[in-house]
Design brief:
387 residues; Serine Threonine Protein Phosphatase 5, Tetratricopeptide repeat; two-stranded antiparallel ribbon; 19 helices; disordered N terminus; Ankyrin_rpt; SOCS_box-like_dom_sf; Ankyrin repeat and SOCS box protein 1; ubiquitin protein ligase activity; repeat
């Protein structure tokens, strides 16, 4: 199973909207193609972006006509209205620069109120987006809040299937992410996009953003059902750990995120809701999260956490493990020692009871533990907060 993570191309927290083709000085050139933004929004590499940005190089599919302007083509294909109706982009432009007074003034008019959820190409942009999506990308929390209060839909997706919350997380804007979550944004992003806010926060090590997502009910495991509301007769089996938030947090050695995911109920073995087919895993790839932690040279703390949260140590072919080179890294000697000791010493009954209780509750109900009629020390014990 392949996974295509979203590209993040930003400067100072903002998209590279003002960069022209081949020019990364930050000075825009009228009519030039900002290669960075094309790459980030449409998934093109820089060479393709430069080609597309040159007049006469873009050919409309099926028409045989050349010389189409890329920005005009994007407007025609993806904007909500015909090109002639998308010339007035003041609402979108104000959202991009964080001009709240202009937003207030424009949205006093009924014509602009009806366009608050309109996807359009704004002054420095190329990908058609709603004003809310633009403000969330740039991290203008006050504008995000105002647009929501004026009726902006929080979970509308762009042509890539990205929600406003997802782009806020990708660009590291905690305030905007919190505002969207409080307004009811889906913490899992959109099922039309293959990455999730949780996955990205885990990859880049933003424990603060990850904690906010978890607080609002984000799923910390992978769900392979394309339509979660309608269970299909079959579902895709997990054939690679790369899609798992727990795996990616370990691969990038983000221990705080790793701990948060486990505390929130992430599966410590495969981090997946659906069926797993280890026979389809790539040859030589890790067979479970513990295997991945050891192979990536993670420190002993990662191993200890997996042991504490009930990982199945028998899934790892420990007799083949050693401190010799495994790909880019070497197995951490201390981590390997902790793993082997855990394999040789039976878990205590207390440890096994905690794991069993948490599994019986299920990850969706772990947050209800503080409300149980139990002594505080037991609640903290079940939540791994005793230390």
């Amino acid at each position: 199973m392949s996974f295509l993570p979203s590209t993040r191309l930003t400067r100072g927290g903002l998209p590279l909207a003002g960069l022209s083709s081949g020019d990364h000085s930050g000075q825009s050139k009228p009519g030039a193609c900002p290669a960075g933004l094309v790459c980030g929004c449409l998934g093109f590499d820089s060479r393709t972006a430069r080609i597309l940005g040159q007049p006469g190089r873009l050919q409309e599919k099926g028409s045989g006509r050349r010389g189409r302007n890329l920005k005009e083509w994007l407007r025609e294909q993806f904007c909500d209205h015909p090109l002639e109706h998308c010339e007035d982009t003041r609402l979108h432009d104000a959202a991009y620069v964080g001009d709240l007074p202009t937003l207030r003034s424009l949205l006093q008019e009924e014509s602009y109120q009806s366009r608050i959820n309109e996807k359009s190409v704004w002054c420095c942009g190329w990908l058609p987006c709603t004003p809310l999506r633009i403000a969330a990308t740039a991290g203008h929390g006050n504008c995000v809040d105002f647009l929501i209060r004026k009726g902006a839909e929080v979970d509308l997706v762009d042509v890539k299937g990205q929600t406003a919350l997802y782009v806020a997380v990708v660009n590291g804007h905690l305030e905007s992410a919190r505002i969207l979550l409080e307004a009811g944004a889906d913490p899992n992003g959109s099922r039309h996009h293959r990455s999730t806010p949780v996955y990205h926060a885990s990859r880049v090590g933003r424990a603060d953003i990850l904690q906010a997502l978890i607080r609002y009910g984000a799923d910390v495991d992978v769900n392979h059902h394309l339509t979660p509301d309608i269970r299909p007769p079959f579902s895709r089996r997990l054939t690679s750990l790369v899609v798992c938030p727990l795996y990616i947090s370990a691969a990038y050695h983000n221990l705080p995120c790793f701990r948060l995911l486990l505390q929130a109920g992430a599966n410590p073995d495969f981090n997946c809701n659906g069926p797993v087919n280890t026979q389809e895993f790539y040859r030589g790839s890790p067979g479970c999260v513990m295997d991945a932690v050891l192979r990536h040279g993670c420190e002993a703390a990662f191993v200890s956490l997996l042991v504490e949260f009930g990982a199945n140590l028998n899934l790892v072919r420990w007799e083949l493990l050693g401190t010799e080179s495994r790909g880019r890294r070497k197995v951490d000697p201390e981590a390997l020692k902790v793993f082997r000791e855990a394999r040789s010493v039976p878990r205590t009954l207390l440890h096994m009871c905690r794991v069993a209780v948490r599994r019986a509750l299920g990850k969706r109900r772990l947050r209800l533990i503080p409300s149980l009629p139990l002594p505080d020390p037991i609640k903290k014990f079940l939540l791994y907060e005793e230390n």
